[in-house]
Amino acid sequence: MKLDIERVVSTLCEVAPPPAPLHEPRFGNAEAEMVVNCLEDGWVSYYGAYVNRFEEELAAFCGVNHAVATVSGTSALHAIIHMMGIGHGDEVLAPALTFVASINAIAYTGAVAHFVDAEDTTFGIDAGKVAEHLHRVSERRDGTLYNKETGRRIAALMCMHVFGHPSDLDALTGVCEEFGIPLIEDAAEALGSFYKGAHVGNRGYLSALSFNGNKVITTGGGGAILCNDDALAERARRITTTARVPHPYEFSFDEVAFNYRMPNINAAVGCGQMLLLPGYLEKKRRLAVRYAEAFSEVEGIRHVSEPADCVSNYWINVLLLDPGYEDNRVPVLEAAHAVGLGARAAWIPVSQLKMYADCPRMDLSVTENLYDRIINVPSSPHLADGE
Ligand SMILES: *Cc1c(COP(=O)(O)O)cnc(C)c1O
């Protein structure tokens, strides 16, 4: 079916006057002041007051006991999977509808992603469909879950809160409990998103955030590991700082570890950005309402609002083509780009990328159909104020 492309693009331009990139970082005055402070006091690497402050503020904001700041979201995920003892011979259930970094982090450890399908409401993993799949392909031996087809251990389930919309964490926790595997939350896109009143990143055994330049707030590059367990947090700190044995002058290390802790310079930027976060989230909600209203009357396409009982940070707004309108995706993207709008397609399902083409998978038809229907549109907070 044919969409009125001109109307779609003019409606987009009303909400996000071009040129409008997909998501643009903005800074206040505090970031520069704090970075200058950091340069003056000389603590530029991961020892430093801003790292501790940023971690404390993040943990408080997310309602978790601990946050450990890292150099990127990808490194946070890598450290998480490594810490869980997952590696060669293991599979991690993971979405095909995600940014490639989620899956790369699994591959770094030698483990293999086992792709699972999305639901078309939240775009997150479809817990019911995964449970059915596991009943078919898995078996439990000596307290461990195995894939009967590959012989590998199924070591964890990694969910991702897609474009900031919380996944159905009750249902996903239920599947993990039923099959006896831990949950990892890739909450890289979801700072400021809440599921049934609690910030996301609370349910995972360990969870990850990202502060890359296009995320809700940025530290240039950065990420964080979130958790509630004191011992796990301690281990996350050690594993991201080369596992040095504390001693006043001896230098000893007791396991293979990473140099993944966030430098103080980046954390200084993060502390400044934390001051802006509530305002950004408020603007992003207003922008989402404007998209929803503007597209309520346009046939064949609609704005996707937050799932029931959830508050989404609306990191990147999604327009979803109605079933039957898939052929309009490329024409809309082309027309939007022609007028200077940074509209974007969803990620090509990671299961289709050549390096992951041999990974085990379930039926991914919903993911594939969502890819054909999703259009991401400019979502910088300041667009809400017509800037
Ligand atoms: C951004 C992102 C990451 C990775 O974060 P970086 O900080 O860029 O390494 C991981 N997973 C998802 C879903 C992301 O969107």
Q: Determine the CATH superfamily of the largest domain.
A: Type I PLP-dependent aspartate aminotransferase-like (Major domain)
**CATH architecture tag of the largest domain:** 3-Layer(aba) Sandwich
What is the CA-based Rg, rounded?
21 Å
* Largest sheet: spatial strand order: 1-11-10-7-6-2-3
CATH topology label of the largest domain: Aspartate Aminotransferase, domain 2
Can you give keywords for this protein?
387 residues, alpha/beta, Aspartate Aminotransferase, domain 1, Aspartate Aminotransferase, domain 2, 2 domains, seven-stranded mixed β-sheet, four-stranded antiparallel β-sheet, globular, binds pyridoxal-5'-phosphate
Question: Could you describe the 3D structure shown?
Answer:
The chain has 387 residues and is α/β, with parallel strands linked by helices. The protein has two domains: 127 residues, Alpha-Beta Complex (Aspartate Aminotransferase, domain 1), CATH 3.90.1150; 245 residues, Type I PLP-dependent aspartate aminotransferase-like (Major domain) (Aspartate Aminotransferase, domain 2). 36% of the residues lie in helices and 17% in strands. The protein has eleven helices and 16 strands. A seven-stranded mixed sheet has the order 1-11-10-7-6-2-3, with helices on both faces. A four-stranded antiparallel sheet has the order 12-14-16-15. It is globular and about 70 Å long. Pyridoxal-5'-phosphate binds next to α4 and α5.
